Amino acid sequence: MKWRTWDELREELDARIGLTPEQAEHDLRELEAYYNGYRLAELRKKVGLTQTELAERMGIGQPRVSAIERGDIESHTVATLRSYVEALGGTIQLSAHFDGEDTDLDVGLLFPKNAA
């Protein structure tokens, strides 16, 4: 029996089901977005707000809050996430990482509140 590396095994399995690296990357992004949406929904529930109440605080419609919480990638802009988090009473931080160096970015200047 020939032993294979994890990468070789993964490539073989991906080929069997017809999964391209691009599709795998897309699927991973969707899964991460879904997970982030789920976490946001849990935070909203912990604060004790309904989607409608949160939408009113954000100045958007309830369907948009629902889309964010479902992980709709199109709804995940930094400005929208900032509005969501701030409506729950939190703050959002944004950092850029370059070769081991972190730079904090001013979310307020880059993404004004009215951009949600």
From TrEMBL:
It comes from the Bacteria. Pfam families: HTH_3. CDD domains: HTH_XRE. GO terms for molecular function: DNA binding. InterPro entries: Cro/C1-type_HTH, Lambda_DNA-bd_dom_sf. Gene3D superfamilies: lambda repressor-like DNA-binding domains. Residues 40-95 form the HTH cro/C1-type domain. This is Helix-turn-helix domain-containing protein. It comes from Saccharopolyspora hirsuta.
